[in-house]
Specification:
The protein is an alpha/beta fold. About 35% of the residues lie in helices and about 20% in strands. α1 packs across α3 and α5 packs parallel to α7. The chain binds uridine-5'-diphosphate.
């Protein structure tokens, strides 16, 4: 099989790590992601992962607890590093070589972000996990996914979600919502659909970086995307 994409950036939300818990990291989800990523690596796909932190902390939620926004955002970034460490550990226990790279310097546990080095890891078949987003407050890990995917010349962003693609309305609220198989960046904007936050989406649009939104919880999906099957919704020019 010749993979449809040679180098992918997989975006996983922090919330998806919770599984059926209300908070934190589900061991079952970690194992699930590790086996999914390992399968991609086995067929020769280079994998970079950007992981969110919403299962632990989000900057916006800090306001309610009286924590200043910027401080809260840094707390959110640290949460993504915790998730990255957990994923790294799960991958290593499945025999997958990984490198955890943090956008906020913390030498004892993660490499600093050096673009050329990150690319070299990918070329050598190591799974690169990007933690701490882009290292700046007021951004999200979607922005980090868009930025890093472009920087390391990934062929696509694979955005794993709870729903199986982009719908005309929220399918969890509106039963008449219909799913799109393919959309252009312009259509997403003109229809006011939400795929990623606007900053992230614009980076992808300006650089012609395709995005596949898909249901991460369906076991076959990731591999089917790599095999070139129509899974989820493809956003492209
Ligand atoms: N964050 C940030 N800058 C970044 C990435 C993340 O400030 O570049 C903070 C922000 O507060 C965000 C939190 O980290 O709410 C967790 O990331 P995100 O909400 O993207 O996680 P996800 O929704 O994917 O779980």
């Amino acid at each position: 099989m010749t993979p449809r994409y040679k180098r992918v950036l997989l975006k996983l939300s922090g919330e998806s790590l919770m599984g059926d818990q209300n908070y934190g990291i589900s061991p079952n989800m970690l194992t699930y992601y590790a086996t999914q990523i390992k399968a991609l690596q086995k067929v020769g796909v280079e994998v970079a992962v950007v992981i969110g932190g919403g299962n632990i902390f989000r900057g916006l939620q800090a306001k309610e607890s009286g924590i200043e926004r910027v401080q809260g955002d840094y707390m959110g970034m640290l949460a993504t590093v915790i998730n990255g460490m957990a994923l790294q550990s799960a991958l290593e226990s499945h025999g997958v070589y990984t490198r955890l790279i943090s956008a906020v310097e913390m030498k004892a546990i993660a490499e600093p972000y050096i673009r050329r080095r990150a690319i070299r890891h990918l070329e050598k078949g190591r799974v690169v996990i990007f933690g701490a987003g882009i290292g700046s407050p007021y951004f999200t890990t979607d922005s980090a996914a868009a930025l890093r995917a472009n920087e390391v010349s990934a062929d696509v962003i694979l955005k794993g979600t709870r729903v199986d693609g982009i719908y005309s309305a929220d399918p969890e609220k509106d039963p008449s919502a219909t799913k799109f198989d393919k959309l252009s960046f312009a259509q997403v904007i003109s229809m006011g659909l939400s795929v990623m936050d606007m900053t992230a989406f614009t980076i992808c649009q300006e650089n012609n970086l395709p995005i596949v939104v898909f249901d991460i919880n369906r076991r076959e999906n990731l591999m089917e995307i790599i095999e070139g099957k129509m899974v989820g919704t493809l956003v492209t020019v």
